[in-house]
Specification:
3-stranded mixed sheet, 10 helices, 3 strands, 57% helix
Length: 233
């Protein structure tokens, strides 16, 4: 949480709406996590709430979303995309800090003080509890589908497995990559191609539509590691 907070709060961009499909899909899944945690808290199921929050923090936020948007959050050529990524990152961190505050009171207070406390020194423990409505408002009143985010995470996991099978680290650059997915998933991910390529450490066309594949299935058809000297790994 400490490291994620340092990374997110080091990103900057001009103010702008969360407009990128991947960012909107991420926030849709974050909103669902907030709703699940609220139900558990209301039922005094604190372990259930923590389970939902932790699962999203790791599998949704740190392991996947941060990796997917790193390049776009620093882009000098896509101002709108950068603004969208930074706004979504900040909303994600703000929400997760508040959700985790009952369990991790000290580190959440420290990270909150870096970027979210007001001039009067507002504590994370006095901040408004996150709600799905807060996230919907950020998204212009719409409630987008999170399917594109799920598909992006599954794509990235398939690439990681293929790199591991090839004896390479997840950060190893690739000279070629081709991944087959269902036509519907390819359509979902087409607007996210830049983020997927940056996270996979490859350039060029990666996705190929294949009838008969389930929407949660990805098949790495071809993977070619870049030379170690060029990859820096």
């Amino acid at each position: 949480l400490f490291n994620a907070g340092k990374y997110v709060l080091s990103q900057s961009a001009e103010d702008g709406p969360v407009s990128h499909p991947l960012d909107r899909a991420f926030l849709a899944r974050l909103s669902e996590t907030v709703a699940k945690a609220a139900v558990s808290f209301e039922g005094l199921d604190y372990a259930g709430a923590l389970d939902a929050i932790e699962r999203f923090f790791w599998a949704g936020f740190t392991d996947n979303y941060l990796e997917l948007v790193k390049a776009r959050a620093r882009s000098d050529s896509d101002a709108a995309g950068r603004a969208s990524a930074v706004a979504a990152l900040q909303q994600g961190l703000s929400t997760l800090l508040r959700l985790l505050a009952p369990y991790l009171p000290y580190v959440t207070e420290e990270v909150w003080s870096w970027g979210f406390s007001k001039a009067g020194g507002e504590s994370v423990h006095r901040a408004p509890w996150p709600t799905p409505a807060e996230i919907t408002t950020l998204l212009g009143g719409e409630a987008p589908d999170g399917a594109a985010f799920d598909a992006a995470c599954a794509f990235l996991e398939a690439v990681r497995r293929a790199k591991s099978a090839a004896g390479a680290t997840v950060g190893r650059h690739l000279s070629r990559l081709q991944v087959a997915a269902s036509p519907r998933v390819v359509d979902w991910l087409r607007p996210c191609a830049f983020d997927l390529a940056a996270a996979a450490r490859v350039s060029g066309e990666m996705l190929a539509a294949r009838d008969g594949l389930a929407d949660d299935a990805f098949e790495v058809v071809e993977i070619e590691l870049a030379p170690s000297s060029a990859a820096g790994a």
